[in-house]
Design goal:
2 domains; globular; 177 residues; four-stranded mixed sheet; 62% helix; Peroxidase, domain 1; alpha+beta
């Protein structure tokens, strides 16, 4: 029963250590996070990368086609490693664990922030400061663009969710009326 969590932890540790040893931990962490969110949000991509009937070399070729030139070689190789091992289905959990570990090493918590638009660095910094004040922790923001929100943000730090999306506000207003 604990095999899956142990496997995820093992992969996360291995990827973390490789990225750190190569000297690209922050860059790889960010690229892996973005790739994992893309994988979660794209049914066709997830289907191809998790289909064991598709040869591993073909799945790895898809990764190379997607990431080659858009991500560091370290990131591309790490994703290819996980996909080639038949663990693409676990990749989002592996990456989430890696991100948590990297943040913990920096004595911070990770806030996954969903926004209708990409947030610039200054906005992310202000948001991290505000979330830090709200939670009492040093917070690092990871942004996921989610156009379905219409506007505003939804932030999740561990089990805490702060929903400031326009979609939720409109639904609350609709219920009141």
């Amino acid at each position: 029963m604990s095999e899956a969590p142990d496997r995820i932890e093992g992969y996360a540790t291995a990827l973390f250590e490789i990225a750190r040893a190569e000297g690209y931990l922050a860059e790889v962490e960010d690229e892996l996070f973005r790739f994992a969110r893309t994988l979660e949000g794209n049914d066709e991509l997830r289907s191809v990368l998790t289909d064991e009937a598709v040869p591993a070399a073909r799945r790895q070729g898809v990764v190379e086609d997607l990431l080659g030139g858009r991500a560091s070689p370290v990131t591309t190789n790490l994703v290819s490693l996980v996909v080639g091992a038949g663990r693409a289905r676990d990749l989002p959990d592996i990456v989430d664990r890696l991100v948590e570990r990297a943040a913990a090493e920096r004595s911070a918590a990770v806030a996954e922030v969903r926004s209708a638009v990409d947030l610039d660095a200054a906005t992310q910094a202000r948001l991290a400061e505000a979330l830090g004040q709200a939670t009492g922790k040093r917070v690092e923001v990871k942004v996921v663009v989610d156009p379905s929100l219409i506007g505003g943000i939804v932030a999740q730090i561990g089990d805490t969710i702060i929903d400031g999306s326009i979609r939720t506000r409109l639904e609350q207003l609709k219920e009141r009326l």
